[in-house]
Design a protein that fits this description.
single chain; 389 residues; Growth Hormone, Chain: A; 2 domains
Length: 389
């Protein structure tokens, strides 16, 4: 089993690459959605239903992936899911109907959800072995991969058809998996200790308490992902519709949010080492509350952009911390539960904002992100003494 510093360093590099690859492939698909919509002739509502295939596939797969990780190992499952993700990203441009698109997106979503549970489980094992809170660095790699994938997609959109672009991404994904996946397949995950009695089994009372704590951390993930989904889908519209920003400036709003989140995650390890997990959740949640209230209610465009950036900084480390703590408590099953809650929040955010915008207004609806961040903060306060840092 890997235990030497060099082995653990190689594992960290390999996992970082897989996190970045995941963000890169997903962003590459997202930037070609308009072209795929035109190709399939889908209406906005029909496209929305097809896109639910990604979410449905991910949610349905996450719990199953936790079981597969326990049986076969998180490293093996990560590599298999990376292959499936790379192959399936090339499928959407081959479809010419909404039904076919929804079907292939179900496969893509299953691979996406599977790899997220698998490499987060592997990362939790590595964090435990290194005894350093490096989880945010992996999620920073995902964010950076997404920024590169989106930027590259924007550059080649005018020169390459969606089929050629996504086929090229598939080849890149398969090559990276073949090269880096060998590190994961050659080494077993670092040995970690869990709460067990003398027989090696988790006591029933501890198991019940652990399950409750995992759900609590899942709720933190849900609150965070709700904000990410809401900002991605509604942030630019708020700037354009309510603050009279041009489309180009409105697009900068989400870029400010995403860049700030990436910076926050890159500095997350140092922050966790200084404050600990509980205080980081409390400080991050409180920061997100202030940032989102400013971003949603400020009468000035530049104040709103500042609010978006502050929100990104605040939310940056909440999801990584939640997944890490859930995985430390319950292994792959904990990661699967927290990830499912988180993905549920990302699904819930955009439509919930839409309904509230119809009933009230978009700025008022966006304050729900601050409300969820406040709930995450309160959970962080309540659990600070319940779980050790």
């Amino acid at each position: 089993m890997p235990g030497a510093p060099s082995d653990l360093t190689r594992l960290r590099i390999a996992l970082t690459v897989f996190f970045a690859l995941d963000g890169f492939l997903f962003a590459g698909w997202v930037v070609r959605i308009p072209a795929i919509k035109h190709q399939t002739g889908a209406s906005a509502s029909a496209l929305g239903l097809a896109l639910l295939g990604v979410s449905a596939g991910a949610v349905l797969t996450m719990t199953l992936t936790g079981r597969l990780c326990r049986r076969y190992g998180s490293h093996q499952v990560t590599v298999v899911c990376a292959v499936l993700l790379s192959l399936s990203v090339a499928l959407p441009p081959l479809t010419h109907s909404v039904l076919a698109l929804g079907t292939v997106l179900l496969v893509f979503g299953a691979a996406y959800g599977g790899i997220n549970v698998a490499f987060n489980s592997a990362a939790v094992d590595l964090v435990t072995a290194l005894r350093r809170p490096i989880m945010p660095s992996f999620h920073a790699a995902f964010s950076l991969g997404g920024m590169v994938g989106a930027g590259l997609g924007g550059l080649v959109a005018g020169a390459l058809s969606p089929s050629r672009h996504l086929a090229a991404l598939a080849v890149i994904g398969l090559v990276v998996t073949a090269v880096v996946g060998r590190t994961l397949l050659r080494q077993e995950p670092p040995a970690t200790a869990g709460p067990a009695d003398a027989t090696g089994k988790v006591p029933r009372r501890m198991a019940g308490r652990t399950r409750a704590l995992v759900i609590v951390f899942g709720l933190i993930a849900l609150c965070t992902a709700y904000g990410e989904g809401a900002m991605a889908d509604w942030g630019a519209l708020h700037l354009e519709q309510d603050l009279d920003a041009s489309p180009g400036v409105a697009a900068v709003g989400y870029s400010c949010f995403a860049l700030a989140m990436t910076i926050g995650r890159l500095s997350g390890t140092a922050l966790l080492e200084r404050l600990g997990h509980g205080r980081t959740v409390v400080a991050g949640g409180a920061t997100a509350v202030a940032g989102m209230l400013l971003g949603a209610l400020a009468p000035s465009l530049w104040a709103a952009l500042l609010g978006f950036a502050v929100t990104g900084l605040g939310l940056a480390n909440l999801f990584p911390v939640a997944v890490e703590r859930a995985g430390t408590l319950a292994g792959p099953s904990g990661v699967a539960t927290a990830s499912t809650f988180g993905y549920g929040g990302m699904l819930l955010g955009p439509p919930a904002i839409g309904f509230m915008a119809e009933w009230f207004s978009l700025p008022v609806a966006l304050t729900s992100v601050a409300v969820l961040a406040a709930i995450a903060t309160l959970i962080g306060v309540a659990t600070r003494r319940t779980t050790p840092d």
